[in-house]
């Protein structure tokens, strides 16, 4: 390749761009050190991930969750963090959490809270393979959700440590042991995380990144709540031949159908979903205590007396939730003759709205990625993600999620990840942590 000496300023950046290289000039010498040490350790990072994936840590396999915690704890001890294991009360039947802290002179940079989780949805008896490499991808239990992201945290911190860039920083790392099925009461199982957020300025969570349609890795600036509702409808039992008269009424099944269709026609809006997942109706209808199984009895010649519906509701802000609740309640109250209905709502995960503060953290992340030659990082549309741990702290601190590895099929037997994404995510995250803390 010939490079004309007459216009080097024009050609050299174009060449670097074409080769996908880092613009060395965009990274400080310390940052270049950090990137180099991450690249040098890529094989060991993959080994650490393999080692942790080979320990089954289904949420209910407490010994496994603690063993993964012990592995990560050793790494954090080596980096000069103060580590401790937090047990949950035995009645909660959860393994507990790993907490690691370091405190610097608070005048400089932001105080960070880094979030990962030790558990996976794959319990001890799961037939899903633990670690199976196929070329440049690996299938296995929790490889992208989220042991891959956990290793991103550890390797990013390790590179910063080697560059002397952890000195004087204030960083808390929390690996929860029950993200996939948070222990009840939530006020207890997430108390330590909330307390850590109160001592921090920014929360970063390392759940898998999600690719957009253009194939780019994205950042998660918003996540929707998870909540549920129960609809209970009553009708007047009677002879079916009299249905639709004022005296006999319309029955509980028609009234439930009217309500659900009203939801569909009047409540749908962007970033809001509500799914009716279970319905039973007839002369008798019952749902079990777990809310996942129902029983019904009825006859074609008897007007239905009872209908029960269970559903979820996912929203991006409390304003959106309140608006949806008000419309749903109004629809429920407009009863057909001879029927009555009531609806109750239960919140589980709070929403993480895409605030300007969250977008500002994404800007730093995207710039760091561009400066390292890894391309800009756009925001994932917030409606496209389920609930996660970061939502318990998002109201307290600026928050960014999706800093982990790239993969497919989380929670399924096909869960996998793209090996190259481990190094890529580690470089971006290390530079982000460096820039936020300096
Ligand atoms: Zn997860």
Task: Quickly describe the structure.
Helices cover 34% and strands 20% of the residues.
How does CATH name the architecture of the largest domain? Answer: 3-Layer(aba) Sandwich
Amino-to-carboxy terminus distance = 40 Å
Give the strand order, joined by hyphens, for the main sheet.
1-2-6-3-7-14
Poorly predicted runs are 1-20
Which secondary-structure class do the elements indicate? Answer: alpha+beta
What's the helix-strand series? HHHHEEEEEHEHHEEHEEEEHEHEEEH
Mean pLDDT: 93
Global shape: elongated
Bound molecules: zinc ion
State the major sheet.
6 strands, mixed
What is the CATH homology-level superfamily of the largest domain? Zn peptidases
Strand content: 15-25%
Q: Give the count of helical stretches.
A: 11
Helix content: 25-40%
Can you tell me about this structure?
The protein is an alpha+beta fold and 438 residues long. The chain has 2 domains: 288 residues, Aminopeptidase (3-Layer(aba) Sandwich); 124 residues, 2-Layer Sandwich (Alpha-Beta Plaits). It is built from 11 helices and 16 strands. It has a 6-stranded mixed beta sheet with strand order 1-2-6-3-7-14, with helices on both faces. It has a 4-stranded antiparallel beta sheet with strand order 4-5-16-15. A 4-stranded antiparallel beta sheet has the order 9-12-8-13. It is elongated and about 85 Å long. The N terminus is likely disordered. It binds zinc ion.
């Amino acid at each position: 390749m010939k490079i004309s000496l007459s216009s080097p300023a024009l050609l050299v950046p174009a060449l670097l761009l074409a080769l996908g290289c880092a613009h060395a000039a965009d990274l400080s010498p310390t940052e270049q050190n950090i990137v180099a040490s991450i690249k040098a350790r890529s094989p060991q990072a993959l080994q650490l991930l393999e080692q942790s994936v080979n320990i089954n840590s289904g949420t209910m396999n407490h010994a496994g969750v603690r063993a993964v915690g012990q592995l990560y704890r050793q790494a954090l001890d080596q980096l000069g963090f103060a580590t401790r294991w937090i047990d949950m009360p035995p009645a909660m039947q959860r393994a507990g959490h790993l907490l690691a802290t370091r405190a610097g002179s608070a005048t400089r940079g932001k105080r960070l809270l880094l979030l990962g989780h030790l558990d996976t949805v794959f319990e001890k008896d799961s037939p899903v393979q633990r670690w199976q490499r196929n070329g440049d991808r690996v299938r296995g239990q929790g490889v992208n959700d989220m042991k891959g992201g956990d290793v991103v945290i550890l390797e990013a911190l390790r590179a910063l440590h080697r560059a002397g860039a952890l000195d004087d920083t204030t960083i808390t790392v929390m690996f929860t042991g029950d993200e996939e099925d948070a222990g009840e009461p939530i006020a207890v199982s997430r108390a330590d995380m909330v307390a850590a957020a109160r001592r921090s300025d920014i929360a970063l969570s390392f759940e898998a990144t999600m690719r957009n349609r253009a194939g780019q890795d994205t950042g998660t600036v918003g996540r929707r709540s998870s909540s549920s509702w129960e609809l209970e409808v009553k009708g007047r039992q009677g002879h079916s031949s009299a249905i639709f008269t004022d005296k006999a009424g319309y029955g509980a099944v028609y009234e439930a159908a009217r309500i659900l269709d009203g939801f569909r026609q009047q409540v749908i809006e962007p970033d809001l979903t509500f799914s009716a997942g279970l319905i039973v109706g007839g002369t008798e209808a019952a749902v079990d205590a777990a809310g996942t199984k129902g029983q019904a009895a009825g006859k074609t010649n008897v007007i239905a007396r009872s209908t029960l519906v269970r559903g979820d509701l996912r929203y991006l802000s409390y304003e959106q939730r309140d608006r949806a609740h008000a419309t749903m309640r109004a629809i429920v109250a407009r009863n057909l003759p001879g029927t009555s209905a009531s609806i109750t709502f239960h919140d589980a995960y709070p929403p993480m709205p895409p605030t300007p503060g969250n977008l500002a953290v994404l800007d730093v992340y995207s710039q760091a990625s561009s400066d390292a030659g890894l391309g800009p990082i756009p925001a994932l549309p917030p409606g496209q993600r389920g609930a996660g741990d970061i939502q318990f702290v998002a109201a307290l601190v600026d928050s960014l999620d999706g800093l982990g590895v790239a993969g497919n099929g989380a929670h399924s037997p096909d869960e996998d990840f793209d090996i190259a994404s481990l190094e890529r995510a580690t470089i971006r995250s290390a530079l982000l942590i460096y820039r936020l803390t300096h």
